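Box 3.1 A note on notation
Throughout this textbook, protein chains are presented in two layers. The first layer is the amino acid sequence; the second is a token string describing backbone geometry. Keep the layers aligned when reading.
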Amino acid sequence: MSADGVPDEGEVVTYERRGPIAVVTMNRPDYRNAQNSVMTYALDAAFQRAVSDAEVTVIVLAGNGKHFSAGHDIGTPGRDHHVHYDNKAVLWWDHVDRSGGDQRFARESEVYLGMCRRWREIPKPMIAQVQGACIAGGLMLAWVCDLIVASDDAFFSDPVVRMGIPGVEYFAHPWMIGPRAAKEFLFTGDRFGAAQAREWGMVNRVVPRAELEAEVTALAEKIAQMPQFGLALTKKAVNQAEDLMGMRTGMDSVFGLHHFAHAHNAEVGADALGGMNARSMRDTATRPAGDAAQQNGGGTADRSAGDTAQRDGTA
């Protein structure tokens, strides 16, 4: 246990070199890889290591266990929102000695929006290897990657509108799945499966769970044969095109709405989360009829993620 009361969970992110591929794996499987700040800065250190290694051409982001990530940590024993970490993504003051909206804005500018933007600009191709739950903050982690390969039991959700908040901090929804799909996704809070995600253009490939790692490895090895500098410039070109479509400025404007919603919740209700917690978020989660994850056996993973949300405080 640290001086801040946060338990030592060991390596919450692991790093492995497989030839030209660096595999960065979130390693909080008991909490469905809920993202706390320890994990955030461990991910950043792993990505820095991969960028600095000239022998690494492709980075794979994976999650250990049944689920990729059940989202931001809003209640596990390892929740560390009160702990100081040196800023890496934004030049702003520390959040720990601030209060109210000042504190929340400072922290989320760094660990959520700022870090995701920092990782999106990594000059090496990144592939998200997604299985099981990819919810809220988990979406952000997948979206910063250039490609997403999902297992057929993967499911996706951004339920934070149930808190009265217009989506997660890294508001990429209209660019990832299109405006109309984004509205349906957010308005309903429904979970959707990998097949639907592929139809909307968010996921590149969907494969059986048993074949997920092999499929990602084969794709990464194929990409790794391309010139490294050419890949970096190509990635930058596509990212710039996205930003010319308004992605970066759009996120800036929605980030303000996100924090206005937090402030409104705190002013009229019990807290900045609109009185919601992991249990209530789990209990109100729904799945569209005919969802591919259910058809493909995702129901077990779904129930498991829901049980964990109740127990672990992830969302």
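The chain has a mean pLDDT of 87. The first strand starts at residue 13 and ends at 18.
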